[in-house]
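Example pasted here:
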Amino acid sequence: MPGSDRLPGQARVVIIGAGIVGCSAAYHLTRLGWRDVVVIDQGPMFRAGGSTSHAPGLVFQNNAARTTCRFALDTVETYRSLQLDGQPVYWEVGSLEVASTPERWEELKRRHGHATSWGLKTRLIGPDEVSSLVPIMRTDHLYGAIHVPTDGTVRAVQASEALARVTGIDVKQGRVHAVETDQGRIAAEYVLSAAGIWGPSIGRMAGVPIPLQPLQHLVGITDPLPELSGETGWQSMPIVRHQDRSMYFRQDFRSYLIGAYRHEPVMVDPQELRSRWDNGLMPSCAPFRDDLFAPSMAYASELYPPLKSAELVEKINGLFSFTPDGHSLIGESLDVRGFWACEAVWITHGVGAARAVAEWMVEGEPQLDLREEDLNRFYPHAFTRSYLRTRGAQNYREVYDIIHPLQPMETPRRLRLTPFYEREQALGAMFLEGAGWERPQWYEANTPPPRPSPTRGEGDVAPQRSGWAARFWSPIQAIEHRAARERVVLFDATPFVKIEVTGRGALVYLQRIAANQMEHPVGKVTYTAMLNERGGIMTDLTVTRIDQDRYWVVTGGGVGMHDLAWMRRQLPDDSSVQLKDLTSGWCCVGVWGPRARDLLQPLSQQDVSNAAFPYLTARSLTIGSVPTYAIRISYVGELGWELYTPTEYGLRLWDTLWKAGDALGVTALGGGAFDSLRLEKGYRLWGTDIHSEYNPYEAGLGFAVRLNKGDFIGRNALLRIKEQGITRKLACMTFDDPAVAVLGKEPIFAGGQCVGYVTSANYGCTVGKSIIYGYLPLALAEDGSRVEVQYFGRRYPAGVVGEPLYDPQMTRLKELPVLAGSGGAR
């Protein structure tokens, strides 16, 4: 598509930004059948544009996030097929991530496991092989490296440019109508913002917040090196990341390119970005900061001796941006329909991300699950300037750090506090952070008395852990686990997202978006999945009928905005249904365990017996002097209730329960034990065990589907799936050695082949086994099948077992009589 100085008067879609994402999106949209696709950019493109124009062109496909890795795999596949003037634009020279510390070497073993899980071929190699691949680099200090043969470098060439500056976006009645430019107006059904560092400015024109923080990034290119005099290609040696020094390197013909994160972040306010060029330079770049780059250049000379006499002949102070969580922004705005974004995408992932957004726009759903990239996933605090700057700076500092999966950012913290926060502090809570909430992982007050540490779980003790598995973990979690099984616990469930659904059309709406039956009496609680048209699980949650035309939907705190956004997209146009987020107005305490009724009944003015208050029902209760709405449900597999009360009553509710529970041995329950309890019971966690790439039958959730209730989103797909059958299934496995502990995402092997990966893992203190879940081919998902799980380079044997491991007859939850041979609670 050649550039043009004349803009059309209308288009189906206007793509703003002619970088790698914008042009790739145009390619995929047209490939999927759309016409009248216009790409506009303020230009000029070569060496003066946005992030694409000055990107160093390094393509590293390996990533801990499956979707991001899949983006990269797709991108490389496309790059291989591209040519410019008969020459390739992608050089598949491979990559090395080197380890100069024992910690990094262990991390590379973990990354090798991730790559295997996602289908990317990688190798762990020693210093000698590193030296043979990069002869000019010192390797005597290295432990080894991970080698990705299909990585490489790409020339970031734009395929299209219409030189025009966007000056406004016409939005009427919540929908895009046109794009205003300095060369005229383009009427459009859709706008796709792929403007990179200018994304926040484009978003503001449409009234859509784009949470990006631009930062400057330092790159230098040396003069030609005599040691490379015989090299003829653009690059022959592998690209290198030295993450222990926060640096990367690649050959650039006979010169060398050096990139560095080894300096304090230099942030740029999006509102101060100039949109016109000055002397062909990036509009918002300050002069190259030699003072910031000097330490990196000094280390580069140590690592590459030929660089000691080299000079930097080109210095780039370019820009890229980070979101608060480091993931991309992809999707359609909820507030302005027709406004789409594909932002914060690195060149490694550009084509794959563009393909995903194009599929979403044309087909209504992307092939890949985009929960981590969803434009609408953030809570309000994430859009504030101070939060964006703080998180952006920390993301820059940590871009090459070794980050544990549970490790929270240390700042900003204490943003969202439940009414019980001070009580939890007094109990010695070790807080993690999720969605801005401070969430206890365990409580030091529950520390057991000193005793010898066994190697296997016995009584209230779990096997000791070491290495990564021991981080953000405590044996105290076993104490809390056993308290839930044997006595009664209090769990702070305030971060659960509470969504009120009201209106004359509420039942019809819920019947259409939920796979389970929603037409129940007032007070009935229903677990259900909500599906996309392909039958993929968009979310799973509980729905409680509060009144004739009023329902409560309760979902996880970490995915709440994602779920609310999806529900909002399905709202009817006739205003017959309203959604309201009640989360901040209501706190919640989970009261769970076999003594839960013994705690509640003396405090309650109402009967909470099994006959009066059966499982999966809800009603109002007065606890002491506190009005609550109680839902009899338990994610830990024991008798119990979720007690909801207006936030101002929260502290009194906690204190009332805690005081009355003292005689019963009441214990505060943290998130670590909460997870092990739910895994023993086989409860799925959305985002890990289930998401939009899996259907209910694969996930073992067919019990929550009612095909005979009438039409609902995904029903036709489920009918086809039932007719054709499934080829994989979520299976429960246990390690032969109960002391083995893994974290999730590790590859699962059978017959020497990778057949899946771990979705969830934890130690089951009641069953005395180390439990994992993962999707396996149907033939392997049978009880008794043998597999191996690779963890930090070693493989550990495990076996498929029937699920759930704990209380399969539901006697504990429903208080059913335990029949002989029923396999009730241990």
Observations:
- The two ends are 68 Å apart (CA to CA).
- Confidence is low (pLDDT under 50) at residues 45-49, 275-279, 453-459, 819-826.
